[in-house]
Amino acid sequence: MKRPDPHDPDTPKLSNFLCFAVYSANLAFGKAYRPILESLGLTYTQYIALIALWEDDSQTVGSLGEKLFLESNTLTPILKKLEGMGYLERRRAEADERQVLVSLTDAGRLLREKGLGVNLFAVCGLAADEIPKLQQSVVALRDSLVRSTQQG
Do residues 53 and 108 touch, judged by C-beta distance below 8 A? Predict the structure, then answer.
């Protein structure tokens, strides 16, 4: 079999794949957030879990997982770690013991001041008015992909 010519315009280029652009941007965000999150003692997934709880405290593991696009088997260890750090507590719902409620502790609420100070707008290289537009486009892309995987 003949090897593709990398100079042939019809040869697919990694840099032309939207999925790679999104993937590599995610990796770059991770690197940019790392020093900030290390100062908070959190991983990125722990941080977004706390943000979701700062937005809407006392919710079920299931609803939190839906917001974060995480399965229960991925989310549970994150929540256990945050509980061990003293930022949240988990308890069975009185109405339905199959459901686990997640709530912030006082320490978790106090971390909000420090945690919401994380701002990477300056390093994004975008004008302030471009960021909401890009965020909306990425959300629309994600939602379309989610819908396409749920069909069929």
Answer: yes
Instruction: Provide CB contacts within 8 A for 60, sequence distance 6+.
Output: 93, 99, 100, 101, 102
- Tokens representing 141? 């892309």
DSSP H helical ranges for 4-129: 18-40, 44-55, 61-68, 72-84, 106-115
Helix axes 44-55, 72-84, angle to 10 degrees: 80
CA distances from residue 49 to 5, 28, 96, 104 in whole angstroms, order as listed? 46, 20, 23, 11
CATH class of 29-132: mainly alpha
Confidence of residue 114 (pLDDT cuts 50, 70, 90): confident
Q: What is the pTM of this model?
A: 0.83
Q: Reduced to 3 states, what is the DSSP secondary structure of residue 152?
A: coil
What pLDDT was estimated at residue 10? 76
Q: Is the pLDDT of residue 152 over 70?
A: no
User: Domain segments of the chain: what residues?
Assistant: 29-132
Q: How far is CA 108 from the centre of its chain?
A: 18
